Amino acid sequence: MTVSFRNLLPLLPLGLALSIRAVAQAPPAPAPAPAPPPLPSAEAPLYDPAQLPSFTGRVQQFTLAPRGEIDGMILSDGTEVKTPPHLSTSIAYSIRPGDTVIIHGLRAAAIPLIQAVSITDRTSGRRILDTDTGPGPRGPRPPPPPPGGFAGVQLVEAQGRIQMSLHGPRGEINGVLLNDGTVLRLPPDAFFSFSALLQPGKTVVAEGNEVSNAIGKVLEVSQIGPSREQLNFVTVPPPGPGPAGGPAPPPPPPPSGLR
C-alpha cells in the first residue's frame, strides 16, 4: 500500500505540518544573476590578435636597435618583422634563430615588412604578445641611456656587403644589414644623403659605436663611405621646434597695417 505525503500531513504535529506546507507552496528560488564580464587585464590585449592576418616563416636572425635590444627579426625569405623594444627580453628567451614562427600583424603594402602584434614559436610553443596596442595610453618605455652610454659600447670599424635595407615601424629606412649579420643603424633623415651608397649589393665601410652581445652586433654609424679613404660624417639634425628636429619655421609676416 502506498501512502502519499499529503495523507501524512494530518498525522504530524500542527507546527511541523504548517512548516512543511509552507515550504511546499513557496515559489522556487530565483536563479543566481550571471557574473559580470571580467574587466580587461593589463596582461591581456584589448583586441584579439588572431583576427589579424597571419604569416609563417623561419627566423634567420634578430635585428638590434642602437642600444642592443631586439627590435625585430629577419625571416629566411627576406621579410623583416618589427617588434617593440619592450618585448626584447621575452623574444630572447622564447625564440631562437632557425625556429619557425607564426606572426599575427600587419604587412606593409610596398615592402616586405610586418609589424607584429603576436609571435608564436612553433618549436618551443611559446607565444609573445604585445599588450601595448590599440587606443589609449601607451605602456612604459625603456629608460633613456645612462650618461656615458652602455657597457660594452666601443668605437669600431665595420665593413661588408649590404644584404638588405632595414626599417622603422613606419616603414622609414633607418639602417642596413651586412652579409656577416652586422646591423648598421643611421638616423632616418641621414639615409637620403647616402641613398646611392646604401643599396643591396654595395660594399661599405662604417665607423661608429658598436654594441655586441649574444644576440648579434649593431653599429650606430658616425661615418660611412665606400672605402676607408672616402668616409663621410653622418650628420643628425639638431633638436629644435621645427619638424623632425630641423630648423624652426620662419616667423609669420607682420600684420598688413604695420608694413
Descriptive overview:
It is a single chain. It contains 4 helices and 12 strands. 10% of the residues lie in helices and 32% in strands. The termini are far apart. The longest helix has 12 residues, at 14-25. A hairpin with a 4-residue loop joins strand 10 (203-212) and strand 11 (217-225). It has helices at 5-8, 14-25, 88-94, 188-191, and strands spanning 54-64, 70-75, 80-82, 100-107, 113-121, 127-129, 154-167, 173-178, 183-185, 203-212, 217-225, 232-233. The strands form 2 sheets. The chain has a 5-stranded mixed β-barrel. The protein has a 5-stranded mixed β-barrel with strand order 7-8-9-11-10. It has 259 residues and is mainly beta.
Quick summary of this structure?
The protein is mainly beta. It has helices at 5-8, 14-25, 88-94, 188-191, and strands at 54-64, 70-75, 80-82, 100-107, 113-121, 127-129, 154-167, 173-178, 183-185, 203-212, 217-225, 232-233.
- Radius of gyration over C-alpha positions, nearest whole angstrom: 32 Å
Runs in which pLDDT lies below 50 for 5 or more consecutive residues are: 38-42, 134-151, 242-248
Order of helices and strands: HHEEEHEEEEEEHEEE
Measure the end-to-end span: 119 Å
| SSE-based structural type | mainly beta
Estimate the helix proportion, in percent.
Answer: 10-25%
Q: What does the largest sheet look like? A: 5 strands, mixed, barrel
Task: Please give the count of helices.
Answer: 4
Strand order of the largest sheet: 1-2-3-5-4
Indicate the overall shape: elongated
